[in-house]
Amino acid sequence: MRAWTAPEVPALTDRFGAAPAVVVHDTSTGRQVETRPSGTARLYVCGITPYDATHIGHASTYLAFDLLTRAWRDAGHDVVYVQNVTDVDDPLLERAAETGEPWDRLAEREVELYRDDMTALRMLPPDHFVGAVEAMPRIVELIGRLRTAGAAYDVDGDLYFPISADSRFGDVSHYDSETMAELSVERGGDPDRSGKKDPLDALLWRSERPGEPGWEAPWGVGRPGWHVECSAIALEHLGMTFDVQGGGSDLIFPHHEFSASHAQAAHGTGPFARAYVHAGMVSLDGEKMSKSRGNLVFVSGLLKAGADPMVIRLALLAQHYREDWPWTTEDLTRAERRLERWRAAAALETGPDASGLVAGVRSALARDLDAPAALSAVDEWVDEALSGTAARPDAGSPATMRALCDARLGVAL
Ligand code: 5CA
Ligand code: ZN
């Protein structure tokens, strides 16, 4: 499907050289790893299920991968960025059934809202923005491969993936089986269904039920399970062993574990991704912000109430992406004050030399996307600029600071 219009990313002058290699925290090893894209960096990020978009939690997660893309580009890499849209799945169909709206119209409307929000927040669009529905032929093909490889079995007309089919199963989350069983119940699995070989085995294909949409496949009409959608879309556009698989930490298990396992079992190689990067959860009033709980702050709501999108962006940047954190209105107030000072400094005719600032912001972001440290580096420069105490005022530095904030933080001043 169509993504959204890319914001300008100003280039920093050659004088500053290239940014350092990017280090990220990889969930599968539990370590900070240097990403080493061979030329083009390949990124897959799990996209929205479009029935209630876009809340601050979504925006916070997508911002983390926007920072990663900007960091790679500044380090001299081209980036191929793929993001899916889960435009057919249980929660979407349930919402549509509740409200009486056709499921595909609901999805279309919410995706449009999401595009508007991403545009306002100056998020870089994916190169491939792919809905499950449009990827159906690829998904069917992948399930066909799994069947041929003996990695699919039938339970009353539905198809399941046996965890025994992938020797790497467990390598993403490293959770013990008790934790896996608990999370499986919480996050869309069905460990209690009878006829399964292992309670954790994941649904690959659900045969058509009355009132639900279905697609033709050699093994019968139905719709895909959730995890195989992301395996198929990532494999099609990135191939095996791409650089980073991203999403919120609620996707570590079962979603990312199974997306990886499906791909690995079908292709007999791995790993699916070199690194698995997970953003923390944003909460509201003590609970994870989620569509099912309904405790949501929408980006579009804040914009409608008059919030400057750059204030929203700065409020999100003030949190390290891996932290779980509670959203409060004070986050906006603090960001508003910061943006005002940054804009005032950016409008000055001279400022302190900007080379330390460029190096500081780049090195903070290269260290596991440490946006709060990058903001502090900008704050320091801004304080000095506004106090007028720079030892050697530089006429070019406010423009450099503006370009840097835009290119690396996506904050247009
Ligand atoms: N369509 C699937 C992924 S294939 C899905 O999880 N959709 S979603 O709409 O529920 O979430 C979209 C993205 O936002 C996911 O990466 C998810 O991990 C992230 N996310 C959801 N809730 C929060 C939250 N409260 N805080 C931070 N990130 C969140
Ligand atoms: Zn996904």
The strands making up the biggest β-sheet line up spatially as 5-4-3-10-11
Quick one: CATH class of the largest domain? Alpha Beta
Instruction: Report the uncertain regions.
Output: none
Mean pLDDT: 96
What ions, cofactors and ligands are bound? 5'-O-(N-(L-cysteinyl)-sulfamoyl)adenosine, zinc ion
* Intertermini distance: 31 Å
| Count, helices | 13
CATH homologous group name of the largest domain: HUPs
How many domains in all? Answer: 2
What does it look like?
Helix content is 42%, strand content 15%. The protein has 413 residues and is an alpha/beta fold. The protein has 2 domains: 13-288, Rossmann fold, CATH 3.40.50; 328-409, Up-down Bundle (Four Helix Bundle (Hemerythrin (Met), subunit A)). A hairpin with a 2-residue loop joins strand 12 (282-284) and strand 13 (287-288). Helix 10 crosses helix 12 (371-387) and helix 11 runs antiparallel to helix 12. The radius of gyration is 22 Å and the shape is elongated. Bound molecules: 5'-O-(N-(L-cysteinyl)-sulfamoyl)adenosine (5CA) and zinc ion. 5'-O-(N-(L-cysteinyl)-sulfamoyl)adenosine (5CA) is lined by residues 46-49, 57-58, 60-61, 84, 86, 230, 247-248, 250-251, 279, 281-282, 288-290.
